[in-house]
Each structure stands twice: as structure tokens, then as C-alpha cells.
Amino acid sequence: MRLKKRVDHQVPFPEPLRNERDHRPFLAILAIIMLVSFIGVLNHLEQEAITGGAVQAISFVQSGKELHFEVNTGPIKSATIHFTEDTKNARIAFEEQDPMAQNVAGPIHSVVLVSSEKPISFSTMDLLLKIKEHDLLSKDIAVSDVQLYANGDPVTTTLTDKDQTHVYFTAKVTTLGDYAVGKKKQEEPVSPQGEQPSPPDVLAEEEEEELLVKAEPSLVGKAAQEPDAKESVSFGQKLRAFFSNFFG
Question: pTM of the entire structure?
């Protein structure tokens, strides 16, 4: 009886080993999640290193809709794009450029290159600019002279707000490319109706012609009177000569 009891006796499995085996699937799933998150962070950092600015991913936007997003690259604080066609799986990149490499005349505050990997169709993109006033003045650009240039062409730039350190502007662009914030060009005076002033020689000739035209009527009148006077004198002389000859 004692031997039977010893054979039937079972040694219990250690509890710590049981718990460790049960947690293995959970630890494996947790490791996979951490690995995927780490890869995502690396991908995001790589995109920022490539562009040096911001990248806006567009999964899908219907035609006629708009998309607003924060940019915070250079002077561009935010942007709102108005799409004219369905757009999916697109990306818009904002990257700061060297202001010295631009063809815009005059002082330049900053330049941002806006590009897309695939063509996108939009009517306008509304930009909100946030610029430090001190940075503008250091580049000899007054707040009233701030001008946005899209690919070298001036864009209407409107001052909307101002605080202790920053000034805010709005602008509408219709194309991607280089957006440069610089100084407004001074408008050159234009002659009325686009006429250019005549040279001095031409003016002198025109004045002489006007004087001749004004003098012609008086000369014509005198010329018309002179023949009559000559004719009257000649007839009187002939008449006196006739009577003197007749009366002998």
C-alpha cells in the first residue's frame, strides 16, 4: 500500500515556469508593436532630414473640397489648399531654400520651395505668413513693404495682424514652386496713356509748324487784297490818262 501511494504521487509543476510560458505570446506581440513604432519614427525622421521642412500627406480629398494644415516652415505658418480634382496618395513638401540663390531683385527675407511628388490640381492655396518684425527690419524691409513672390512673380500680400514680436500676412498662390518673402518693388511713374515724352528737337519742329499754320491765314488775306489794290490803281491811272489825252 505504501508503494502504491508513492507511485500515484505526482510532483507539481513549478508555478514560476508556468507563468513564464504563458507570458511569451504577450511579450512577442509587445516586441512587434515596439519594432513597428520604432520603424515609423525612423521613417518620419528620415523624411524631415530629406526635406528640411514639413511634409503633408494627402490620403484622399474630393474635388471641390479644401484641406487645411500646419506648416511652420520658414515664414509659412499654415496653408489651405482648394482642390479642383479628386486627389489621393499625394504628398506636399515644404523646404527652406537659400535666399541668395533667388532671382528676385531687392532684399529677401526667406524662401520656401513647395513641391509635390505627383501633379495635384488646385485653384488656390491660401498661405498664412508669420514673420518676426526684427528679422524684416534687419534686412531693410519695412512691414508695409513686405511682398510675397511666387516663382518670381509678385503676389498680393495683406497684413492681417501684429503682436509684440511678429507680424502676420495672408497671400493666395495658384502654383507650386519657390515662395520668396522680400521687399515690394517701387512702381515707376508712367506717362498718361502710356505716351513717352518727345525729344526736344521734335518739340521744336512741332512748335514751328504750329506757328506757320497760325500765320498762313493772315498772309492769305493780304495776298488776296494786294491784287485788288494794284488793279484799282492801274485803272485810275488809265482813266486819268484817257481824259488828259481827250481834252488835249
Answer: 0.57
Mean pLDDT value across residues 8-36: 67
Output the pLDDT for position 223: 46
Complete DSSP assignment for the chain? -HHHHHHH--PPPPHHHHHHHHHHHHHHHHHHHHHHHHHHHHHHHHHHHHHSEEEEEEEEE-TT-EEEEEEEETTEEEEEEEESS-EEEEEEEEEEE-GGG----S-EEEEEEEEESS---EEEEEEEEEEEHHHHHHTT--GGGEEEEETTEEE-EEEEEE-SSEEEEEEEESS-EEEEEEEPPPPPP--GGGPPPPPHHHHHHHHHHHHHHHHHHHHHHHHHHHHHHHHHHHHHHHHHHHHHHH--
- Largest interatomic CA distance in the chain: 209
Would you list the domain boundaries of the chain?
Answer: 51-183
- CA atoms of 141 and 143, how far apart (whole Å): 7
What is the Cα–Cα distance from 179 to 71, expressed in whole angstroms?
Answer: 13
Is the CB of residue 100 less than 8 Å from the CB of residue 62? no
Taking domain 51-183, whether its CATH number is 2.60.220 is answered by yes
Amino acid 22 reads D
Question: Using CA atoms, how far apart are residues 11 and 136, in angstroms rounded to an integer?
Answer: 83
Query: What pLDDT digit, counting tens, does each position of 185-196 carry?
Result: 876 655 556 555
Q: What is the DSSP string of 114-159?
A: EEESS---EEEEEEEEEEEHHHHHHTT--GGGEEEEETTEEE-EEE
pLDDT band at 37 (very low <50, low <70, confident <90, very high): confident
